[in-house]
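Repro case for the chain-ordering regression, as requested:
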Amino acid sequence: MPARFKITIEYDGTGLLGWQRQLDGPSVQEYIETAIYKFSSQIVEVHGSGRTDAGVHALGQVAHFDFDTDMDEFKLREALNAHLKIMEAKIAILEVEKVQNDFNARFDTVKRSYIYRILNRRASSPLRENRVWHINYPLDIEKMKEAGRHLLGHHDFSSFRAAACQAKSPEKTLDIIEITKEGDEIVFYFEAKSFLHHQVRNMVGTLKMAGDKSITPKDVKTILEAKDRTKAGITAPACGLYFKQVWY
Amino acid sequence: MPARFKITIEYDGTGLLGWQRQLDGPSVQEYIETAIYKFSSQIVEVHGSGRTDAGVHALGQVAHFDFDTDMDEFKLREALNAHLKIMEAKIAILEVEKVQNDFNARFDTVKRSYIYRILNRRASSPLRENRVWHINYPLDIEKMKEAGRHLLGHHDFSSFRAAACQAKSPEKTLDIIEITKEGDEIVFYFEAKSFLHHQVRNMVGTLKMAGDKSITPKDVKTILEAKDRTKAGITAPACGLYFKQVWY
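-- result from build under test --
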């Protein structure tokens, strides 16, 4: 009996070309498909809930794939993790769940969340290398919070959209944006049904400018309304971004 | 004018042979002494508040050294960090403070703290590789807390002392032991004036046995009273241990 499985995945994006299979280097998709092949000899396509760029991490990426035969969920997870370990992939399967054969990890998504971490202190952190964006001058978190409020809700996010973005519309609804101080870090939390390509990193790159006072919080509203990518800040580095959770 | 400096250091212990200079590989002490030499041409000895073993991390190790000439604290930190970065050392100087020339990072210590992190879930964590001890079967945290209480206070800790330990006496006073659940981790916090070599890792290795029920919490009391290293549990892996703070 064929079966469809939903898997929840953590990965360290460092050194990976991102979620999607690439010709020129390792990807999460390729590693998982290879792991499946190694223990089952089945060539499957693993469908992710969304792509992540090179260097971006995941705490709870979700994907689905079909298997020719039924298999115990626990054993499947063990087999996958064993083969990922052998390949020294920095990828772990946290959960495996058998789902209805019409479940789709990409199209059935109702909500996604991302976290972005800025380390805001003078010295870098060896223990958090490739885990945070290090900014070594002080950022004003209150200004960033004030700026962030302009991004909440339904907008045309063209100013925060990558040129390569394949979404049909630049209109998205940002349901939650939270900016909190956690020790020496400034942590951003974003929730929306979906995001444009680079949207989170471009929003963080712009909010950071409100934090270092190169723009005012209100400028973020002007930038948003301009619907022009060249008006916004830089794309924040991939290493600070975590794909946190997907809801179905 | 000669000057003495106190420095506070964070490091990722992975791949390092520990704090102390070794002939056969990189150490924190050697990296810092080399960094000082690179920008000042001064050969100095850096005195740590305590040694850490290979693979053990530090969030706030402290050391002191003497400099032939006075130097601005901020500039000294910048120079040190720049040279540590060039050498690709996973070491950062968080603070530099000019101190009285009788300050001693080792002998003036009044209290130290350590953290130990156990990841307690089935799958490993790629994002926390070399940051936690991964135990993939459930541990009973209440049993561990109960067991831990027997270690509090003044005792002969011979059962938790490494054979190589150079302390004059096996008697130490453990002032604080806290065991808390933080998400999928079990986090230990220890505070004492000083610790025996491997004491924290040996205590964690034994408390873990109370958690997996291979011993009872009360057995920890028996083990302690036996004053015999062979009665206690294994030495927990170095990668879960963090030298947190030193007080003067």
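Ordering looks correct now. The first helix of chain A runs from residue 28 to 40.
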